């Protein structure tokens, strides 16, 4: 159980009347009712959900394989929320907010999702679709990697007293992207694409990327990239690739070198772009665990040996492995919902 990542909720002495807001309808707050928040994280291969209370305790989790296409994804998210909402109702709780993390370019103000290529979504307003089933509940849509970044930042309790340095969450999943946390909040950039480093075309093999470019880092430093370079009949390809390389298979060593070089390049790009105090390694490939971290660290050390500048960055000291035993993406999505709920009620109280 994850405890205490949400600070105490705004208080009220009486029930509030729902109001229209720029991002939806403000829910009622009933005296004596515990508040429930649902966080959903949907990726290219799985969908995870959590139910939390107002104090930040994770009360329930769910996980299923994810679907493809706008309608199928929206229906699956609604079903996940329904399951978790039912648990909350059984505990006498009121659904006060929903947060959803999903791949692609996200307009956090409108809830529009575009270019979620690994889910087969070219564009849809996800918030409007979900709101049809949960009227009166504030719904926040966030990029899945940004949500995972906030979840990791919360669960790992990064940024202690006096530490305001940015934190980067480098997601080596089906795709490759980075979430950035600054001052405890997700940094989106001007158009919402901050951290989309997977589509920087710097990879020498010039493989075709789903985004339309060639040579994107994602074509090697991601789950889909590993599957392309080292296909397997079943299971996750990276552990099999690392085992073959350890046994001395020349083609495996060459393939693994390509993958690790791409990952190191991603780390260097992030370090030189935002200079984070910590770089958390997450996503499906991170389930390989410490062997992957050690391989990345060795590659970074080799780079540092030939460059005093890279050596001065002390990159290996900044690396952390994301907690693999917790649904940090869904936790982060729920945290986004809690933050939005607090803003709405604080705004109402001032009025």
TrEMBL record:
Pfam families: ROK (PF00480)
UniProt feature, compositional bias: Polar residues: 1-22
Coiled coil start-end: none
InterPro entries for this protein: ATPase_NBD, ROK
Region (Disordered): 1-31
SUPFAM superfamilies: Actin-like ATPase domain
Family of the protein in this entry: Belongs to the ROK (NagC/XylR) family.
Protein name: ROK family protein
Organism listed in the record: Bifidobacterium fermentum
